Amino acid sequence: MQTTLADFIKGTREGSEAEAILRSCVHCGFCTATCPTYQLLGDELDGPRGRIYLIKNVLEGAEPTRKTQLHLDRCLTCLNCETTCPSGVKYGRLLDIGRKLVDERVARPLGERLTRTTLKACLPHAGLATPAFRAGRLLRPLLPEKLQAKLPPVRAAGRWPTRVHPRKMLVLDGCVQPGMAPNINAAAARVLDALGVQLTVAPKAGCCGALRYHMNDQDGGLDDMRRNIDAWWPSVENGAIEAIVMTASGCGVTVKEYGHLLAHDPAYAARAEQISAITRDLSEILALFQDRIAALAKVKGGPPVAYHPPCTLQHGQQIRGKVEGVLQAAGVDVVLCADNHLCCGSAGTYSVLQPAISLALRERKLASLAATGADYIVSANIGCIAHLQAGTGTPVRHWIELLDRICTAD
User: Fold this and answer.
1) Which residues share a beta bridge with 75?
2) Looking at 232-367, which runs of residues are DSSP E strands?
3) Half-sphere exposure (CA, 13 Å, Cβ side) for 403?
4) Calpha distance 22→1 (Å, rounded)
5) Strand 279-281 and strand 334-335: pairing?
6) Which DSSP symbol is given to 78?
7) Would the CA dihedral through 117, 138, 249, 205 be positive or negative?
């Protein structure tokens, strides 16, 4: 795709990156076939190809409008288009660049600004988010139905293993997950403990940076990334840990991009690259232990379990089949729904900022999951889990909770 950058961005780091991405696009339109918002809305500008044209126009000097902003806002950043694209267009990076440029030029309505400011101020900080979730649960009967749906009952974390093993790995606690589902990391720690791996937490690590970065507070998001690198680096530098484990695929896809996102920062570039290199999704780690997991499994067989692969895992990290393989090794009958490649509508803060589209996609996804006949749903990202659970009475859990129950229950 030919493009001529405007003077305001020509020669800049972001301009050069955007230009290279645009030149890789051959406008074939394959991406529209797998774009959830295009399927739902039927508007070319609500598909990847249309949004690429909108961003191209801004980069070439056209003045963006509120309509431009709206079409970019409606993107889930599910990256299904990147999986589909035969030319390898890095659409997600182009979207980050385009959204930032548009937001710098188009003022949002007051209500939107307040909502976004509140989300960026509260959610990335577990010290604020966790008490807020607790208070919300106490006041749940008094809250509007929409807010009640976002406050699922918390399940006790259970014991955290205390045995010391020669093999050690770090796990990211994150920001929202500790308050919404503290049991996820505890379950991961128990399963890894049974496999001879000690899972530890770096207390000063927090939000992966995705929330603020993708809401156009890119400087704030980069600061979150730097803080995590500082928290993890002593253990990485002295060789005390062999991997950084992600139990939330949304965090994982971001941490694996630290090397790219901080490549321009001479103080952090080398460390960020190394952090990204040793970061693994939990499924990547446990896939190495399938034989031992099979031996640990205390109960095999049973009704089928439906697995919803998050977009951040299958499209962002390009990891497919590993969760299913680990669960199958433990004797679980895992099934995928017909549209397993499509987004459930959660997409981080999207369900708050674009509720109508988010709910429509959730209903479509839940109908497909129900059609599998499974009476239990698992996923690999806290956002997807909470979003799906709010729309169904069928239990929705992290897959590691199921594996924990099968392999480590007394």
Assistant:
1) none
2) 244-246, 279-281, 305-307, 334-335
3) 38
4) 6
5) unpaired
6) -
7) positive
Nearest to 248 by CA among 45, 400, 63: 400
| Residue 239, token pair as written in the block | 């060789």
Q: How many residues does the chain have?
A: 410
CA distance 227 to 246: 17
Q: Please state, in angstroms and rounded to a whole number, the distance separating the CA atoms of residues 340 and 397.
A: 17
pLDDT digits over 199-220, tens only? 999 989 999 999 999 998 999 9
Q: Which of 156, 153, 118, 119 is nearest to 137 (CA)?
A: 153
Place of tokens 């806290």: 382
Q: Quick check: 139 pLDDT over 80?
A: no
Q: Which helix (H) or strand (E) holds 407?
A: helix 399-407
Cα(360)–Cα(337) distance, integer angstroms: 17
Identify whether the C-beta of residue 280 lies closer than 8 Å to the C-beta of residue 353: no
> Rounded to 5 degrees, what are φ and ψ at 201?
-120, 135
Q: Are 17 and 42 in contact, with CB atoms under 8 Å apart?
A: no
pTM, to two decimals = 0.92
- All structural domains of the chain, each given as residue ranges with its CATH number in brackets, are 13-105 (1.10.1060.10), 296-407 (3.40.50.11810)
Per cent of the chain over pLDDT 70 is 93
385: left (phi over 0), alpha (psi -120 to 50) or beta: alpha
Instruction: Tell me how crowded residue 145 is: count the other CB atoms within 10 A of its CB.
Output: 6
Among 19, 5, 13, 95, smallest CA distance to 55 is for: 95
